[in-house]
Amino acid sequence: MDELYETNYIRQLQQWSPVKPTGGSPSVPPQVGYCFHTPKKHPWRPIMGYEEIEVTPMPSQPITNTMVDPCYTSEGMATEPLRFPNLVTGFDRSPEHAARAALYTRYTQHEWTQNSIRNYNESDAKRNFSERVRNDIMRMLRETDEIGAQGQRDSGRKIGERITDTTFWRNEVAIEMERLVATCEKLSDTRRQLERAVAGVEGPLHVAQECLYHREKRQGLEQVHDTVEQSLLKEVAILRECQDKFRNMLEKVRQQSKNCRATQHELESDMRNKEYALGIDNMCHQLNNFSKGLQFYAGIERYDPTVSDAQRWAAASAATLQRSQSERAKALQMLSDADNLINVAATEIWDQWSNTNNAFTRRIAETIEIKNKLQLHLHKVQQEIFDVEKTLELLNKAIEDKLQPMKVAHSRLQARTNRPHLENCRDDAQLRLVKEVCDLQETMETLRSKIASAEGTHQTLLGVRASLEADLRNKSSTLFIDRDQCMGLRRGYPVTAAIKS
């Protein structure tokens, strides 16, 4: 309440007659309303009425002079003893009339009896009403208790259902995450295997290129575009093609590994959120009326921090699992493709490697065969050259042997030219000597022509021998390149182990 009371109005029972206050009496409260007469007139009672007057405000606690020192009393506080109105409140207005009005305030016995009966009836009615109200209140209390208990049971059941759903999805996410982690490990193994395959192709490719470089050192007609060179070129093309396939597959595997890791991070985040939500829901499910730490949070029912409903939540969880399953299926398919690619490439490389080795083997065999034939022909040419040289010696000796008979014949002819006069005739001896000389000269010319022919043959044979020796050297060089250098590199190289390791 404030320091001053609000203005109140009371109705005092008195006869309506304006009376001025006397000098020694207290001031009469001013009239603030109208006068109202009694609704029922009695022949034995004067007419009475009601008048609205202003009541002077009093302090919040009645204080008398005996309780408060007047010097410390605040302004406006009444320090006079309290004065209560008389039975007839109009004493101060009209004392003489108040005495007469008091004689007519008596009630009859019937009124007194009716008043008691009315009080009894009113008591019974109020008591019955109070009992009905109390029964209604008890019923309402039972209903509210039942509503509260039922609401708590329903909330607990709903929270339990929510825990079951969250646990189901949590387990599904956990199982899917384990499968995805295993798939990611397989992808990592496949990635490392592809990296080793890419690095492993470098070895056979280097060997094939070295073989081509070595075969470029062949001399003369040995630089033929044979089946070995064709196989080597095809092998280099296959190795480069397989290496490009390995690199493309390696890039795909790396990208798929990134996608799987992103999906794994999403599953881990979803699983952490579900674990956190399960902890909260389990704590809420265990709360009861006797739990500790219960508090009131005003307006919490109007605060809605949710961002989705149950359908969207389940759809989001299913979508997360579906994305993971899709990425895992792609990863498994990629693993199968990578394994198939490695096996097919290794088989293809090994087949071409074997074909090239077989071509080398055949070429080496052909070269050895040709070399042996060349050596045989060279031996024959050498023998022929030796025979020609011996023939030339015989021819020269034959010419030398013809010189003495030629000298004898020339000497005879010279001596017979000294015969005198008619003795110097062309007789048979002379003719025979001339014929002998002519025969010897013809024979010597024939021998000299044979020597020239033999010398030409000898020079031809020397050229053939030089050609055969040069070809034989080329064949030996080619055989050394193919058999020792190239096959020495290829024979012990583990091409399949380098790719499948």
Automatic annotation (TrEMBL):
One of its GO terms (biological process) is cilium assembly. GO terms for cellular component: axoneme; microtubule cytoskeleton; nucleus. InterPro entries: Tektin-like (IPR048256), Tektins (IPR000435). It is found in: Cytoplasm, Cytoskeleton, Cilium axoneme. Its main location: cytoplasm. Keywords: Cell projection, Cilium, Cytoplasm, Flagellum. The keyword Nucleotide-binding does not apply. Belongs to the tektin family. This is Tektin. It comes from Parnassius apollo. The lineage of its organism: Eukaryota, Metazoa, Ecdysozoa, Arthropoda, Hexapoda.
